[in-house]
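[Automated response] Your request has been received and processed.

Submitted sequence:
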Amino acid sequence: MAFPNRFLDDLRARVGLADVIQRHVKLTRKGREHIGLCPFHKEKTPSFTVNEEKGFYHCFGCGVHGDVISFAMSTGNLSFPEAVERLAEQAGLEVPRASPEEREREKKRASLFDVTEAACAWYEAQLRPPAGKVAMEYLTRRGLEAKAIAEFRLGYAPQQSRGQTSQLAAALRSSGCSEEMLLEAGLLVKPEDGREAYERFRNRVIFPIADRRGRIIAFGGRILGDGEPKYLNSPDTPLFHKGRVLYNLSRAAESARKSGELIVTEGYMDVIALARGGFPGAVAPLGTAVTEDQIREMWRLVDEPVMCFDGDTAGQRAAWRAAERALALLQPGKSLNVAFMPAGEDPDTLLAGQGAAAMRSILAAARPLVEVVWEMELGVRPVDTPERRADLETRIERRVRQIADRTVQQHYRYILRERAQQAFSGGRRDRRPTRSAKRPGRPSSTLPGAGAARRGGGLAAASVANRRRPQQILLAALVNHPALIDEFGEAFAGLEFDPDLDKFRQELHHIGASMPDLDAGALHRHLSESEFASVLDGLLETDVLRHGGFARSDASLQDAREGVEHTLALIHQRRREEEIRADARSAAAEGTKESEARFLEHQKDMVRQGEQTAELDDEWRAAGAADIES
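Generated structure:
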């Protein structure tokens, strides 16, 4: 069975060679390659290498060599067609059947590489004076020296007058390139009215575009002087599909794999400027918003590429489009980070004016994709009414549902809901109890969790002073009310738990993200059959639940929620009091006039904090004691 070469190339590009081999062999990255023990012969010292960039594996011990298809054939005992079909299924590709006509087209496609390479060399030659004087002056003004011009194979497409015979066609005819081949490669344009074909690129600086193997497949041209469009790319051809290619990918790949950094910018000159400025792992989409295929191509190199956008409104819109494209594709460990340039700057101008340190600062401040999504939704309208808040929550949920991976989706849902709650409460991370006048002997009815304390039992004063008991009660509340795992996961992550309880907390968070619909009974069974069975038994002891009635299984979900909120508030209050006390001790130890003033201020603050803590303790004690006595 014959398969089109174009399909096989696409298959090899879509299926990660190292990913396939790592299912059989443990690989370790070493420079641009991976190494491991050969799966085809017994050895103690690794001699099996995998070169992802070039798409082959090789063993220096037994001499075996091949690509992803031959590896699938050898390890799966498959025929060539069977291996192709299995890999295509993994990559989500439909297997085509090559007809004689298709095989002929593949031959033509192979010859087109010779056409584009010859055209690239011709454009390079035209850059030399006198023909390319204007183009060379433009590149010099942009700060490019001969080394960069040669490295990126920049060239010049001369002006062509109407009716003039194509200089490119005449030059390449001697190399065996027919007009039909130049048309198919997108180098010539044939008018529909029957006039003579003319060159697509005229009076433009030429930027050759290569595939991931470094073969020239297309060109981009920047107009010299006035004219539209300012930048012009080759049309889609048998070699080139604009939405699948990234400019400079073949050169950036090695650096990106070594450093783990891939910078995605907006234009050819930005890529070249970054490479010259010490950032060789830079690529660019070709004049359009980044596509799904380009995002997948980035992820073949690094897990979290950094996309650089202008800091203006247009740059924000571009970032939002990228976020929308990426959401459905997100996987555990695979995402995007977004960096915004200062107003009026792009990487080219920033590097020229302020140097590499300024660019490094911009990259260091890159935001995770989840933050971009949040800002995108929050910026739609204010959240100052119940209806607008409900609208924000609805839009967040709609956005989160775009994420195909269930685990990533759950984490996004949790973080974005947390951001919404902060926005609704004026930016406060934790909702603290509201102070109000109290009636003697009874807790304030406006205090979050006070209702839960009266109905389900509060936290007795003795257990507040005990470090472990509050931790147990909080975790017991999640075990008996799994709906709260997602809601309070991040708040719990900010607390200091005892080591065994912290591992239990992490397990709860993992279960909540991977099995969000699990009820309390199923969660108990799952934990009781795991390594956490003894911890679970300790959480469900009568003494724990006696002091934290809101954590019991018979408490309502709302009571449990309010009880957890109240306990978190009290823990944070005690932590704040401890921090102030430590600052006071430090100031007292310095023995200077300035430190003495700080110490006095800390004392005043300690009094204020102590009053607030005492108020919380009194309310808990009253609620807890009443419950215990009843």
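Summary generated for your ticket: The mean pLDDT is 82. The chain is about 55% helix and 10% strand.
If you did not submit this request, please reply to this message.
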